[in-house]
Amino acid sequence: MEHFIHIVLHYLKEIIPALAIGFFISGLVHEFIPEDIVLKYLGAKGIKPILYSTLIGTFLPVCCWGTLPIAVSFYKKGARLGPILSFLIATPATSISALLVAYSVLGLQFTAYIFFAVIVMGVVVGLIGNTIKYTPKGLKEEDICPHCKLDSSHIHTHKKTPFQRVISILKYAYIELPKEIGVELFLGLILAALVSTFVPIGRLIRLYLSGWLSYIFSVIFGIIMYICSTATVPLVDSLIKQGMNPGAGMTLLLIGPVTSYGTLLVLRKEFGMKVLTIFLVSLTVISLLLGLGFQVLQGNSLRADEPALSNVKEVNLEAFQYGFSPDPLVIKKGEDVKLVITSRDVTHGVHIKEYNINVAAKKGETSYAEFLPGKAGEFEIICSIYCGSGHNSMKGKLIVKE
Q1: Concatenated DSSP letters for 173-209?
Q2: CA-based Rg of the chain, rounded to a whole angstrom?
Q3: 369 pLDDT higher than 50
Q4: Which of 82, 138, 157, 394 could form a disulfide with 130 if both were Cys (CB 3.0 to 4.6 A apart)?
C-alpha cells in the first residue's frame, strides 16, 4: 500500500504543474474564442472545414461529451459529415492540457507524434465522411451536453467587463474544467498506480502485451473504456514502463479518449448505424497504423509476443546510509528484471524515475520491483524516504547496456 501511495504522489507531482498551465490556457481559449466564430469557419463545404475543424479541435478544451452540442450545431447549420467527424475525433483526442501532461510524463517525441497523429486521424476520417451518403435525421432541442447543460444551438455572445472575463477564465479553468474531467483524471491516476504497483499485473503485461496482442488490447480497451485524453497519459505511461509495446500505447492514447458511449450513441441516433460503423472501423484502422508507425520510429521490431519473457533475472540491491550496493547496478536492455531490495540499517526509498520504481526498503524485510528495461543508458537511483543527515546525497546509478 505504501508503494501504491508513493506512485500516486509521483504522478501527481508530474502532472499538476502541467495541468495548472493547461487549464489556464484552456480558460483563455474558452473565453475568447466564441462558438459563432467556430461555426463561421467550420460550417462551409469542401476540405477547408475539415482542416479547420481538425486543427481547432486539437486545442479546444472540450471533452468528447462537450463536443456533442457543438457538433450538432454544425449539423443544424448545414455542415457536411466530414467536418463533424473530424471535430468529434480531434477535439477529445487531445487538448492543450493533455499535450502539456504528455510532454511532462512521456517526453517530447511522444507529444509531437500525438499531435501529428490526431491531425492525420481527423483529416482522413473527415475525408471519408465527406464521401458517405446519408439521410439526415431530425434533431431535438433536448440534445445537450451532460457537463455543460447547454442546448445544441446555444452560442455565447454575452458582453463582459475585464473583471468579469478574468473571473470567467479562472472559474472555467479551475472549477468547471476540473469538474468535467476530474473523475476521469483521478481514475486514470489510480489505474496507472495499480499497474505500476502490483507485480502480477506487470507480469501479465510483459507476457502478453509486449507484441501483437497489445494492439488488440488497446483497441478493445480504448473503445469499451472512456478516459479523457489527459487522464490516459499516466495510464499509458505505466503500461509502457511495465513492458507494453510503445506503439500499442500510442494506439490507446489515440482511440481511448474519442469513443465515449455518448459519442457512439449520438452518431447512431443522428446519422445511422452505417455512419457509426464506418466511423469506428476508420478510427480503429488509422489508430492501429499510427501506432505501428510510432513503434517503427522507436526502433522496435514488429514481433509476435514471446513467452521467453517469463524468464526473470533476480538482481539484489541493498540500500544503506548513504548509498546503494552494487553501485553501479548493471543490467541488459530487454532482460526481464526483478529487483530484490533490502536495507542494511534504516528505512530507505529506492526510486528510479525512468522506470516508475519507488519502493520502500526496510531493515529485516525484502521488497521487490519488477520491470523490463527498454532503453539503454544511465539512470539515477535516489533515496525517496528521509534516512538521516546524508539523505540528499544518497544516490546510485543504474546502467542499462545494449
Answers
A1: IIIIHHHHHHHHHHHHHHHHHHHHH-HHHHHHHHHHS
A2: 23
A3: yes
A4: 82
